[in-house]
């Protein structure tokens, strides 16, 4: 005769309870406003937006922009921009932080440069230039009037100067980027007997972010014992205004702005980290093999 365990009925009742729980859960939908674990991916276009009640705008939007590029917008509760990662192709993904004053014509407080991928766009920061003993001189050979060395933040240097020469003279500006040679970037005539203002605007070619740039303002008098004086009105660096102002890359540091950073797990289909550098190396090796065969 078969042996029946004493706890068989208890085990059957426990199994029945578990079956009822499973049957109940199968008929229950999870909350639609919660994600308890795991990654969230939106693929093949579209946007994710958070819209306050009774507002015609979203305080947070990320995803596809009208021209097919992708970007991000964070707004304040009055609807004004707070942060944007521009999604239009022409803006090249420029990051911008906006002021709260919507009446201002130009509200961008902080941004990277639109045309130069290695420089700060805003704020505009000063360039250091200091007067020398020859700021006012009678020398007929080139003499230093203003000199200084500054770290590079923005892409374009802007200097405003004014010169008075009793008998006329000349003024020039030299620039030397860290590791390079000094070169004359601008030179002009100072007519006799009047103040002559001049503005220098020059892309900081071959200068990387936070590299040092040395600037010298020099002048000479056209006649001996006749005075020439040069005053510095302003010296700062600014963002590019047009693509033609984008400075040349530093020697040996051309960079690759199209190369993505390593992906996050949420960016991959299987949730695993992928190394783009390894993928690129494999692709390059495959192309070399095809070329050899």
Short précis:
The chain has 293 residues and is mostly beta strands. Helix content is 12%, strand content 35%.
Describe the structure.
By secondary structure, the protein is mainly β. It is 12% helix and 35% strand. It has 2 helices and 17 strands. It has helices at residues 8-26, 276-292, and strands at residues 47-50, 60-64, 70-75, 81-85, 95-98, 108-112, 120-122, 125-126, 130-131, 136-137, 143-151, 156-165, 169-177, 183-190, 195-203, 212-221, 228-238. The strands form 3 sheets. The chain has a 7-stranded antiparallel beta sheet with strand order 1-2-3-4-5-6-7, with no helix packed on it. It is elongated, with a radius of gyration of 33 Å. The chain starts with 7 loop residues before the first helix and ends with a helix.
What key phrases describe this protein's structure?
293 residues, mainly beta, 7-stranded antiparallel beta sheet, 5-stranded antiparallel beta sheet, 2 helices, 17 strands
